[in-house]
Amino acid sequence: MRWRAVGTSQAGARQSAVARELNVYRSVIHRLLNHNRRDQNVSRRRGSGRRRITTAADYHYLLQCARPRRTLTARQLAAQLCDAAGRPISRQTVSRRLNEGGLFLTTTCCLCAFVPNVRQSAVVLGL
Fold it and tell me: Nearest CA to 81 among 10, 16, 19, 92?
């Protein structure tokens, strides 16, 4: 519909005629033509809300780094991505992007080996 409106308008039709033909308000056609004049494009406007700091390339790089080394923490991955991208990216953002990619980070914990105390058992047995 967008390109059809631009093409009809460039063919010499008035905005009101184009709006009537496409069954939309004239203000829609006016805004569309202004956008086309300014950007030479009639694609959709970007969505509202806060823009993401991580690009698609950052996202793919992050997943490629995290998959083979599952023991890295989000803080370590954030530092690695910050060095590669050249801009600060928080640990929470990295954690969210990994969760979107299906890589759920676990918190690092200290693994303790439960080995029976040999001396204590030797004393009990009288050895």
Answer: 92
pLDDT along the chain (127 residues), means of 10: 82 89 90 83 71 83 87 89 88 88 64 56 52
Domain boundaries, the chain: 1-39, 56-101
Distance from C-alpha of 85 to C-alpha of 72, rounded to nearest angstrom? 18
For residue 59, count CB atoms less than 10 angstroms from its CB and return exposed for 0-12, middle for 13-18, buried for 19 or more: middle
Q: Do the beta carbons of residue 60 and residue 96 sit within 8 Å?
A: no
Q: Which letter does DSSP use for residue 117 in this model?
A: -
pLDDT at residue 123 in the model: 53
Structure tokens at 54: 């991580």
Here the tokens at position 62 are 């992050």
| pTM, entire model | 0.46
